[in-house]
Amino acid sequence: MLIAVINSRWQTPLPTEENVTTPVDVYGYYGRWMLITRYRLGDAIVLARRAGALNLFVFPQDVDPRDGRL
């Protein structure tokens, strides 16, 4: 399982109490970026852990990897 937080203002792998409800986008990469869902950061981490072998990437909502500006 891979959990990555891309282009983020978060500096630690675990969110602080104030960031746990921050809205984020969860993407998968399967030859192209696919938006899987929008969640709060805390819920996105739970989803990624349950996803097992899937590679999920968590982005702040103002970053869209599909536009090629990572």
Describe this structure in words.
The structure is a single chain. The chain is mainly beta and 70 residues long. The chain contains one helix and four strands, in the order βββαβ. A hairpin with a 3-residue loop joins strand 2 and strand 3. The longest helix has 10 residues. It is flat and about 35 Å long.
List the helices and strands and how they pair.
Layout: E1 2-5, E2 23-29, E3 33-40, H1 41-50, E4 55-60
Parallel strand pairs: 1-4
Antiparallel strand pairs: 2-3, 2-4
Give a quick summary of the entry:
By secondary structure, the protein is mainly beta.
Number of strands: 4
Query: Count of DSSP helices?
Result: 1
Which descriptor suits the 3D outline? flat
Radius of gyration: 11 Å
If strands are numbered along the chain, what order do they take across the biggest sheet? 1-4-2-3
- Measured by DSSP, the beta-strand proportion falls in 35-45%
Order of helices and strands, N to C?
EEEHE
Q: What would the keywords be for this entry?
A:
single chain, 70 residues, mainly beta, four-stranded mixed sheet, 14% helix
